[in-house]
């Protein structure tokens, strides 16, 4: 499967939105309750890119099949070398190496930007994502109880981290 990884553009946001909204409605991988609007997704895209954070897409035959980005982990100045990332793959294209290709690219971009730590926050029941991150070199750094509430139940968050240096 030939995948092209490139910087996202505003024109990609409807495809990104389709991926995001599927995850919001059908999973606990995004702790939002309601599907996003295109205007909100566009605003989130601009928020990342205006601060020089990457927002990349995976493209196959001209179709957006996944995306990845990172941004601030927390907003205190001492956290400026730590970022929190997100990688999502369209439901019809999972298991084809797209997620690992996107995450590898984000890791390389973070290293180029002289960042020190990359964090992921994953729902504790999402064993696939936790295992995926461990295969990519991330270590589980913590398990926080009942940090979210979705689909009528409390959800735990697992923090994974990768030291980039």
UniProtKB/TrEMBL annotation:
Protein name as it appears in the record: Phosphinothricin N-acetyltransferase YncA
CDD domains assigned to the protein according to its UniProt record, in alphabetical order: NAT_SF
Domain called N-acetyltransferase: residue spans: 3-165
Taxonomic superkingdom: Bacteria
Species this chain originates from: Flavobacterium saliperosum S13
Keyword annotations of the record: Acyltransferase, Transferase
């Amino acid at each position: 499967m030939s995948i092209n990884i490139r910087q996202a553009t505003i024109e990609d946001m409807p495809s990104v939105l389709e991926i995001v909204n599927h995850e919001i409605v059908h999973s606990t991988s995004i702790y939002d309750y309601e599907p996003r609007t295109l205007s909100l997704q566009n605003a989130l895209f601009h928020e990342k890119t205006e601060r020089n954070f990457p927002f990349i897409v995976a493209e196959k035959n001209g179709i957006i099949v996944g995306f990845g980005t990172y941004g601030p982990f927390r907003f205190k100045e001492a956290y400026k070398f730590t970022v929190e990332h997100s990688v999502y793959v369209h439901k019809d294209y999972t298991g084809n190496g797209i997620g690992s290709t996107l995450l590898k690219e984000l890791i390389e971009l973070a290293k180029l930007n002289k960042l020190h730590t990359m964090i992921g926050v994953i729902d504790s029941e999402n064993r696939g994502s936790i295992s995926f991150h461990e295969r990519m070199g991330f270590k589980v750094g913590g398990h926080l109880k009942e940090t979210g509430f979705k689909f009528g139940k409390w959800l735990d968050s697992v923090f994974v981290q990768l030291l980039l240096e």
